[in-house]
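RECORD CONTENTS
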Amino acid sequence: MRLLKARPVAAIVLRQYYLMRGNPTRILPTVAWVAIDMVLWGFLARYLDSVNGQRINFIGSLLGAVLFWDLFTRIMQGVTLAFFEDVWSRNFVNVFATPLLISEYLCGLVITAILTSLVGLAVMLLLATMAFGLSYLSLGLLLLPYLLLLFLFGIALGVLACAMVLRLGPVSEWLVWPIPALLAPFVGVFYPLSTLPAWMRVLSYALPPAYLFESMRAVLAHRPARTGGLIIGIAVALLDLLLACWLFSRVHRSAVRTGLLARYSAESAV
């Protein structure tokens, strides 16, 4: 069995770079939407701070939650958008006709997602710090596991979404965009999990970001950081990533065996 090589992975990343360089409007959404979110939620948090007499730090808790959730969304969409480029251009037969391993293809998508999301993260941190005085130094070294958890789970969901579109066809991409919005109520982005009904909390504990936001709120409230839950969240996110990659490889193998790739149409591949 051939081992994963760096050169094919770099080729996938380089293709995405050329696509962005050739059309700068591809970069604009990465910057524009995060900037809009930071400004909108930043001024809302500042207003809430002014009316609650500083009893609760809304700048830290609310704007910080928006930043982390936006980062998760950008990571997931970074994987799916790179994959969708091949969907929209009907490029699958060309890509998979080469001696390219699925692991190399997925690694290229993941690296692309990491690089593009880091651009969005830099914009968010710049706006949050300069415009609203949000400092992440108060999180200390916890910032590293927070980011690790978001990257692992965001990539896992991105790969899972790619597998779904590969199996069901391009029309199913409209099922991908609402995923972050559907998960947000369960992970407690803006409120503690204790506010949720019991049946929702059961689902929340299976979603790694829920542990992150509970830990972040505890730190901002000067309580213990709940590192035990954070470790569980990272472990679950890693497991999700491995399962998503395994599922994508199975779907790809089935698509090749059944000739699905050759019949891939603009409407459905069911």
